[in-house]
Amino acid sequence: MSCMPCEIVLVDDDPEFATGLAEILTLEGHKVDVFETPEGAFEWLLAGGRAGLILLDLHTPGMSAQRFRALQMSAPALHDLSIVIVSGEPTIHAIATSLDASDALEKPVDVARLLETVKRHCRVA
């Protein structure tokens, strides 16, 4: 294992992509909870689910990344959680900045960059 284990919430509606990412992260020793929708992840977190980092797909059905971020910032227990926006969108870095996200990862995700990003932004409880 290359770094401290991180508890990661992964929100992506593409099951193949989410499973692949979760497998890579799990092999590195991280704990990954996968959600297809931001609503599911948000409700789980509010109910006491633990996370040190959120990997959030920019385009998911239902709640927008912007709305998720606004709700996260309004919930004191979730306010300090790092969030990394994941997308194939060419303007992903500008969007992540506008959301005051910790970072952005472009799809297809570079594994070395993914692991480095998790290491840099994970908040270990």
Kindly describe this structure.
- There is one protein chain.
- The chain has helices spanning 15-27, 38-46, 65-74, 92-98, 111-121, and strands at residues 7-11, 31-35, 53-57, 82-87, 103-106.
- The chain is α/β, with parallel strands linked by helices and 125 residues long.
- The protein has a five-stranded parallel β-sheet with strand order 2-1-3-4-5, with helices on both faces.
- The model has no long low-confidence stretch (mean pLDDT 94).
CATH C-level class: Alpha Beta
Q: Please, what is the CATH homologous superfamily?
A: Response regulator
End-to-end C-alpha gap: 18 Å
Total count of helical runs of at least 4 residues:
5
CATH fold call:
Rossmann fold
Helix content: 40-55%
- In the predicted model, the low-confidence regions spanning at least 5 consecutive residues are none
**Total individual domains:** 1
Note the run of SSEs as H and E: EHEHEHEHEH
- Average pLDDT level: 94
As a percent range, the share of strand residues is 15-25%
Shape: globular
Judged by helices, strands and strand pairing, the structural class is alpha/beta
CATH architecture: 3-Layer(aba) Sandwich
Number of strands: 5
Which labels suit this protein?
125 residues; five-stranded parallel beta sheet; 5 helices
Task: Give the topology.
Elements: E1 7-11, H1 15-27, E2 31-35, H2 38-46, E3 53-57, H3 65-74, E4 82-87, H4 92-98, E5 103-106, H5 111-121
Parallel strand pairs: 1-2, 1-3, 3-4, 4-5
